[in-house]
Amino acid sequence: MSDRDAQSRLGSGRDRTTDGDRNLTGGAERDPLLGLLETGVCRLDADGAVVEVNGAFLETLGRERSALLGEALSAFVVADDRPRLSAVLSWYDSENATDGVRFDAVRARFVTGDGERLARELRLDAARPAAAGRTVAVLGEPADDGSIDASPDLPGLVDDLPAMAYRCRDPGGTPDVVTDGSVDVAGYDPEALESGAVGWRDDVVHPEDRDRVRGAVREAVTRGDSFATAYRIRPAGGGTRRVNEYGRAVRGPDGEPVAIDGVVVDATDRTAAGDPADGTGERRGGDDEFAAIVSRISAGVVRQPTRDEIERFVCDRLAAVDAVAFAWIGGIDSRSEEVTLRAEAGVEEYLDGTGIEFREEGRGGPTGRAVRTGEPQVVSDVRADPEYEHRREHASEHGYRSAVAVPISHEDTRYGVLNVYAGRPNAFAGERRAMVDGLGRTVGHAIAALERKRALTNDEMVELELRLRDLPSAFDLPDADGEIRFERAIPLEGGEYLEYGTATPEMVETLRLLPDRLDFVDELHVREETDARVRFESRLSEPPLSCIMARRGSRLTEAVVRDGDYHIVVQLSPGTDVRRVLRTVRESYPDVEFVSQRQVSEPSPRPGTLGTSVLGELTTRQRTVIESAYFAGFFEWPRGATGEEVAESLDIAGSTFHQHLRKAQGTVLEQLLSEVAVSS
Predict the structure, then answer these.
(1) In this predicted model, what pLDDT tens digit does every residue of 213-255 receive, in sequence order?
(2) Which of the chain's termini has less CB crowding within 10 Å, N or C?
(3) 474 and 588 share a domain?
(4) Among the three residues 601, 632, 660, which one is the final residue of a domain in this structure?
(5) Which pTM does this prediction carry?
């Protein structure tokens, strides 16, 4: 059998791999055909990860099989070649890819196990349609002419960074593949452009240039030829940038155009007088230069590995700009309702170890307003701003005349505030305010992406903190500085619920008023009252928030009224749709405020603990009885509630209560003793 025949069978035969193949760490090739080939061959899954590899491939790269299996092939090429290879593989293995459009040869520089660079050519063949999502890559010697790749592939101009390469099957629609260069050129992630959340032609290209650009592309598609055009864009950081776009039509087997390959190159720094990008012959130095700097910072942000490094990077880069005096980033402490210092550059201990309050209107200056409103706040001239009258000496000491504070946020989550200061007045007017605001959103997006990645790789959970302000005013309750903590809600037959909790003594009057003030609280009984704590039980006609969360696969870990505000903490499993959870909460509490979102470690069961397995052995009635007894204080000494009192709450006879309780206790003890026996 020839190598060509084996490669053909590998590319078109029935798919024999599974998702579990990505976890292989050794052993022979799963497909015996691989061993027949003298050339290096590997099979890739839909994500570009290696699922099969032969000995010749491993020998060429000088690597062990366990090092390649399950890893992205692009991880073994030099950094400069990764965007091109990833883009090619993504397009080639796309379910929507047109048969016959092939990347016959893609050149890349591999890194061997010894750290040396080895230039090789990958010949690709997709297993479509019989085994969609599988691509065979054959390792060969590079072409003599030194070309990066053969037809058709993303243009070689990808190497001329900053540049964005793309492939689009619909010339007027959403691109199928966008490389990471989109961040350098326009400040947008490739995913935003590929998903259509941001339209390159509709949203990014300057409105005055859109028709001209569309016409150039349309004409190239009609001719089946290449095109080149210069125009302006509006990057994510605000302002205006100039770009050059080069593209060409990709022809299918019948000779008709089936896609557009293109590359967009940042031309801002190369623009000379008379640049056709705007047709004016003028170059706006100040705003364009600042926009270019902000865009480069935005591009660097997404490459930082941790939140701390993101924040330090942004502050360091901003402080290095001539037009900026210094910068700092503050985090939001939801409990103290203060902004506290996280990173700074160009200044030392700007907050002097204190925090900036943001809860009350009129407090916290522009930083506090940015947190409260979620909008950028600008101080044009501290010497003329009445709000800064008491801080003018402070401003003079630190050498600034104007400032901007923008929230660092992503979707509904606010992570902090970015503050930038300049030595001249009106430094952040107009487009510059929008540029810094865009940078704040980019930082928020990067932090959110890191948290998602950390949650998926470290088995961490998402924790949301929510707040409902000023319950006394909302429900005509007395003002008190105490605390009410809702600990457990237990569903009963007939759609009712028992909710147990504790409170500080000064909240007793508030507790007794709840049935009159809240329609869904039918009854409330104070079961135990001491100098330090009050235990209560309430009967509800509607499900409390803890039960609503449980139905959505979430868990309410804290529900407490403290100093007049209702604080709610919810834990979600990785991958849970946070916005859906928020909608669920707001169905019951329309005025609830989003406070924070953070990653927390999922608690691991301690050896010897029963966890939820014991509860699974109980009947519904047994579980209701034992939980009600526990939270009512039945097992404490002295008892917080008698068996008859718990039975009355459950609307069952005392004898029935004790019968179910004894059976539940027997099941728990049986499970406990059997586990002790096994562990010993």
Answers:
(1) 888 888 777 776 677 778 889 888 777 888 888 777 777 666 7
(2) C
(3) yes
(4) 601
(5) 0.41
